[in-house]
Amino acid sequence: MNQDSALDYCKTKIEGILNWGSSIQWENQEFEELSQIIFNKTGVNLSHTTLKRVWGKVKYDNRPSISTLDALAKFLDYPSWSALKRAREINKKGEPTRPSLVIRSKKFALIMVLVIMASFSSWYIITSNVAKNPKLAENLKFEAKYSSFGLPNTVIFSFDATELSAKEFVIQQSWDKSKRINVTNDQTKATCVYYYPGYFRSKFVADEVVLKETDVYIETKGWQSTINTNPLPVYLSDKDLIKTGALRLSENGLKHLGRHYEPVSFHYYKREKNISGDHFNFETSIRYDMANKVSACKYAKVVLHFSEGVFLIPFVIPGCVGEANLLVMDNFISGQKNDLSAFGISLDDWQKIAISSLNKHLSIYINDQEIYSAKYQMEPGHLVGISYQFDGAGEVDYLTLSNDDNSWEFDQQF
Asked: Are 96 and 51 part of one and the same domain?
């Protein structure tokens, strides 16, 4: 089976499960709901824009990426896209469609059907709830406001879920399911404390179905540094930082770090809507502080945070590249499954790092030499923040971030 016919089969099966009518009539809302349903079942976040491309709602000349196809196949209970295609080939020859099920008798087949029905009953209930209650979710009020500026920050959520019925209601602070609070449908207010800056998409969830989202943006006043201890970070003050010559910890900051031996982050979060994640040039210079004697692998990460996702670029000593992971929006690249040896560098001396993005293509340079490039599919949105993380003490010499037509430019010389 070729890819086009397999994809047509896949889309037809998904449309049948959802029972939303012909996809010709689907609008933006349906694709947003489908994005959430796929995430609920598979844990893979396919943006509504990616799904619209798959369904031909948005003109796109390239074929879907294998990660997108794998996610669609997993939604249909196949382990991978290649497994789906193999199963369809077998089915054309009159054999079973699930390669993992070997049916030896009618009795065994009946048992397996019952097991499958039991395994996926909860998922069926979830998708049914989404399909039956779109209007209720549409009318749900869910808003956020801030108690203060800076860190930590208590966010006050306002909501009205009196028309909804579910066994469990929760507010999830971000993508992280561990950061949740339980609420009831007769509440109208709830609060969550955010301990790190960033751009978060908070969710109102009923019986594991995301009904509504609202954006939470925790900004910083200039550069904010944290020692990333658990469960709560240590906030460093201005006297703990040096911002002349290079951004680094002062002697006082190093004393704080000496008591914790945890990663250190420098955060800068300020809304800048004039720069797109799909059109920018970024340049910086980083190294490890000479006082850093405790880190074995000497990890460093540069994070460019946009409203719809992030570019996370890791650097590490050569012997630890197998543990490095690169995130390019919806493209997660594991050092255990890919050759990321180009990111194995010594940070004992200053290293010039450049990152550029254009037309869904990211390029990464070290000392003016391109070391890696990767594609992505999702729309990144606009810039919301920049952060650096060092496995111990590190330094930043400068950074510039601009787009080609110079309509926006950030230039920080420390």
From this structure: yes
Q: Tell me if 265 sits within 8 A of 389, measured CB to CB.
A: yes
* Per-residue tokens: 87: 């199963």
How far are the Cα atoms of 44, 301, 315, 353, 396 from residue 369, in angstroms, in the given order? 33, 19, 15, 9, 20
12, 38: one domain: yes
Tokens for 396, please give them. 């930043």
Q: Closest by alpha carbon to 171, among 136, 138, 133, 200?
A: 200
Bridge partners for 327 per DSSP: 312, 332
Percent of the chain with pLDDT over 70: 83
E-assigned strands of 139-237?
141-146, 153-160, 169-172, 180-183, 189-194, 198-206, 209-218, 224-227, 234-236
Q: Which domain holds residue 386?
A: 224-413
Kindly state whether residues 232 and 352 are assigned to the same domain: yes
Below-50 pLDDT ranges, the chain = 94-133
Residues 140 and 181 placed together within one structural domain of the fold: yes
Provide the pLDDT for residue 158: 96
Q: What is the CATH number of the domain that holds 191?
A: 2.60.40
Residue 96 to residue 103: CA distance in whole angstroms: 8
Number of domains in the chain: 3
Alpha carbon 55 to chain centroid distance?
23
Pairing between strand 309-315 and 300-306?
A: antiparallel
Which distant-in-sequence residues (6+ apart) come within 8 Å of 242 by Cβ?
A: 248, 249, 250
> Which helix or strand (DSSP H or E) is residue 87 part of?
helix 81-92
* β-pair type (264-276, 248-249): unpaired
Q: What angle do CA 64, 68, 69 make, to 5 degrees?
A: 80
Residue 18 φ/ψ, nearest 5 degrees: -75, -35
Give the model confidence (pLDDT) of 312-364 as tens digits.
Answer: 999 999 999 998 999 999 898 989 889 999 999 999 899 999 999 999 999 99
20 with 142, same domain?
no
Co-location of 242 and 387 in the same domain: yes
Tell me the DSSP string of 248-275: EE-HHHHHHHHTT---EEEEEEEEEEEE
Q: How many residues does the chain have?
A: 414
pLDDT of 315 reads 95
pTM of this prediction? 0.67
**Domain with 252 in it: what CATH number?**
2.60.120.200
